[in-house]
Amino acid sequence: MRDPPKYLSAGDLLRLCDFLYRRTGMLFGETKRYYIDRRVADRVSATGSPSFGAYFSLLLADPAEAENLINSFTINETYFYREEHQLRCLSRSLLPDIIQRRRPGDRIRIWSVPCSTGEEPYSIAMWLLENWRLVDAYHVEIVGSDIDSTALKDAAYGEYGARALSRLSPELRDRYFEPLGDERWRIIQDLRESVTFRQANLVDRASMAQVDPFDIIFCRNVLIYFDEDARRRTVANLHSALSPGGYICLGHTESMSRISESFDVLRFEDAVVYQRRQES
Q: What residues act catalytically?
């Protein structure tokens, strides 16, 4: 059986993958040829470009089209209460430590990045309402960020299907979601208003420099898509976005140990987390 025809030449593929890497830190290549060809062909058609060469020129000149292409390559696979052990660690260990240095009414900032279509930052808000008795004693600010502008719009709207809600009990679903029919639900308005969404690119220093420091960062399952250089740049940016003594939670297959020496590894009852060292 013959292989399907290739939409991009080897040179075109190299140019496109280099463009994506420089913009996002994500590595693509010949092994993901079908995935790349299909998405590029869709964007060439959508823009009416007569050829890939014409499209690539448009890509370099038009930031909006660069954003559209990047959106088509991002992976938005998640669900509510994902890696629940980290949420337990948040309420049992991380927040009790942070409030030792705060007064009631002070601000505590939590960042979910990348946040995809919002399931993870909304999960943090729900978990704290259900499991942290001091949630109303402090000004908890939850921010969700992603490079994908389309995903952020979906997150702000807050509509989800049954698969995204599969880990939630019927009681939680009924408390925090409004049924829309056809196995669709929408987050209640109070919860939507408790999370702020804004765009951010983890590998771009200028984008990350606009971020005010956070006390806790959830950055899960993104470093696995980067090479060593992109990981180091990302972790340096995350370090700058974290308050001294603040915590970062990674995905269960990810580790800081070979990337940066600027964090201490802490093993709590529920999870392993990384703490930015206090200033000496």
A: 39, 146
